[in-house]
Specification:
The longest helix has 15 residues. The strands form two sheets. A five-stranded mixed sheet has the order 4-3-2-1-9. A four-stranded mixed sheet has the order 5-6-7-8, with helices on one face. With 200 residues, it is of the alpha/beta class. The two termini are 31 Å apart. 25% of the residues lie in helices and 16% in strands. α3 packs parallel to α4. It has a single domain, classed as Metallo-dependent phosphatases (Purple Acid Phosphatase, chain A, domain 2, 4-Layer Sandwich), CATH 3.60.21. It has five helices and nine strands; from the N terminus they run βααβαβαββββββα. It is globular.
Amino acid sequence: MSNMFFTSDHHFGHANIIKYCDRPYDNVEAMNEDLISKWNAVVMPGDEVYYLGDFSMTLGAVERITPRLNGRKYLIAGNHDHIHPYHGKSRKPEVLAANTQTYFDAGWTIMPLQVNLVVPSLDRAVLMTHFPFASAPDPSYKDKYTKYRPYDDGQWLLCGHRHLRSQEHLDRRIIDVGVDANAYTPISLDYILELMRSPR
């Protein structure tokens, strides 16, 4: 029986993210290898992984690293992914088509920028997207990504983007699936349901 996992914001190949997010790595190669190891320690080949954006700053890392990661991988693009409409290198249709093919060839299934996930044990769908709600405080980015941030209609949200170190500073109905908030490891649907049941 397959399991479902969620994660985002690895920034594979991005050396500066170590400094920006105070990650515990000496260099980008050590970071890449540890993130791959942590992914494969919990995700089995038959599992599903919903990736909520910012996999890598480079297409080369997409090609090299994706095949090394277990699971069937579904990408909801973030602003640093080369297929997001905000990304400067994906605004020309012919470039976007080529970039999309690169992700597909590496093993990704490309999803819309916002996806409603039906969870049988909940009474409504859970929204998945890279960005937090438009109403959520986001002082680091000001209004830079406003058009891509979802409207808060009362549902639960799974997102990434802010590189928080834990769940504690999030709105009650937002769960950060990013690696910086989750010990650099994809999190399971069971863990998400546990967070939903727990007061924060």
